[in-house]
Design brief:
Elements (H helix, E strand, L loop, with lengths): L2 H22 L5 H23 L13 H5 L1
């Protein structure tokens, strides 16, 4: 596939999946927005603690983003 046609297709597919997820969660409302904002802040503060080297879970390492995406 041509990258010019692939990127718009992937964007539409992602939008469809996110729309389905929002509908499955009962529609997009203030509570769902708050949940995603808190999740983002949690990720950001975790990365900041890791970069500062103050985390007990990352002894000897400053930051490794891979575990964040593994769960």
């Amino acid at each position: 596939m041509n990258p010019r046609t692939l990127l718009p297709w992937l964007g539409r597919a992602l939008a469809a999946v996110l729309a389905w997820l929002a509908r499955a969660l009962g529609g997009w409302d203030t509570t769902l927005s708050l949940m995603f904002a808190v999740m983002g802040l949690d990720l950001l503060t975790g990365l900041l603690v890791s970069l500062a080297g103050k985390s007990d879970k990352t002894k000897g390492a400053v930051s490794c983003p891979a575990p964040s995406f593994r769960g």
